[in-house]
Design goal:
five-stranded parallel sheet; about 35% helix; about 15% strand; Rossmann fold; 2 domains; alpha/beta; 13 helices
């Protein structure tokens, strides 16, 4: 059973009118993700994902963007708050299309076909199949999805060619750190070039990090209420400087960030996930020397080269002083 769910009940979308609704499950379903009570929806991303959920056409939706910017989480949390089932898998080098279809197992002497994640999702009304990190799987895996994204039945080659029509409301979504053209930054060296025939069958939406106001709301919900607003804002400015200087958008960094001249040394970004981790560490170790640097090391810079770590530490000192 379905019921209409008002979008203004979702955090970040409170100003939408009551009549803006979308169908969701009225009852529990084991594939509905857990809600993140601190999550804040961004209208630009929600508009695209909801538009794709609402369209009757069969093409997929590919969400691209740097790590930790919220590609997967917007899909998970929309399905959680709208009470829609979601089946998700992650791409990897050895993945094969048959892994999505199922396996053969021997039960009481009989060989049975056990349906895989794609087959299960395809047969469930208003279910979405999410292929996370699709560019980590070999291009042949995504190409095998082309006929499904053209609106044709899925042919289950492991089960005597059984044809499986998509259930009502079924949607296919995927995420990738690249836009399908391969790793152009050096950050994602396991990413493959996606076949253009697959890309042509998808909407493609680029996701970026939250705005400072959106990110503050996320962090304010995750950080101890006794911590003042000012250091949270400072951490967001630090993260944005790292992001801008890393991606070559130096003119968008703060004046203090630009003045340090460290953009050529920064080799990583800082995701919202990293910021939340940073604050969790600082709350756990509030009395160490230089708590911001200590937390940065555990959350971000111990994963960098010494030169890259020092560049980020200098940015942190510019925003926080020597604390």
């Amino acid at each position: 059973m379905l019921k209409d769910i008002a979008l203004n009940t979702l955090p970040g979308l409170e100003d939408l009118p009551d009549e803006v609704t979308i169908p969701g499950y009225a009852e529990d379903h084991p594939w509905i993700p857990n809600q993140d009570q601190n999550y804040v929806f961004r209208k630009d991303d929600v508009r695209v994902v909801l538009g794709h959920l609402s369209t009757p056409s069969p093409e997929g939706l590919l969400l691209t963007g740097p790590r930790g910017c919220g590609k997967s989480s917007v899909v998970y949390q929309l399905h959680a708050w709208l009470r829609r089932p979601l089946v998700a898998v992650s791409g990897y080098k050895q993945a094969e299309f048959e892994d999505l279809l199922g396996t053969k197992e021997i039960v009481d002497g009989d060989t049975l076909t056990m349906d895989g994640p794609l087959v299960q999702a395809l047969g469930t009304p208003y279910c979405t199949f999410l292929f996370d990190e699709i560019d980590r799987a070999a291009p042949g895996v995504s190409v095998a999805l082309n006929s499904l994204l053209d609106g044709y039945d899925l042919v289950h080659v492991l089960d005597s060619g059984r044809r499986i029509p998509p259930a009502e409301g079924f949607r296919f979504m995927s995420t990738a750190n690249t836009n399908g053209m391969g790793d152009l930054s050096g950050d994602y060296n396991t990413a493959h070039v996606l076949d253009t025939a697959f890309i042509d069958r998808n909407w493609v939406h680029s996701v970026w990090y939250p705005t400072p106001d959106e990110e503050f709301r996320i962090l304010r919900g995750a950080v101890d209420p006794d911590i003042a607003d000012d250091p949270i804002h400072r951490s967001i400015r630090l993260a944005n400087d790292v992001r801008y200087l890393y991606t070559g958008r130096d003119n968008e960094a703060s004046a203090s960030g630009q003045a340090l001249g460290v953009s050529g040394s920064i080799e990583t970004t800082m995701s919202t996930r990293s910021l939340v981790m940073l604050w969790r560490v600082m709350m756990l170790f509030p009395n160490v020397d230089q708590p911001i640097i200590h937390a940065l090391k555990l959350a971000v810079t111990n994963k960098c080269t010494p030169e890259g770590a020092e560049a980020i530490h200098r940015l942190a000192e510019a925003h926080f002083g020597d604390g």
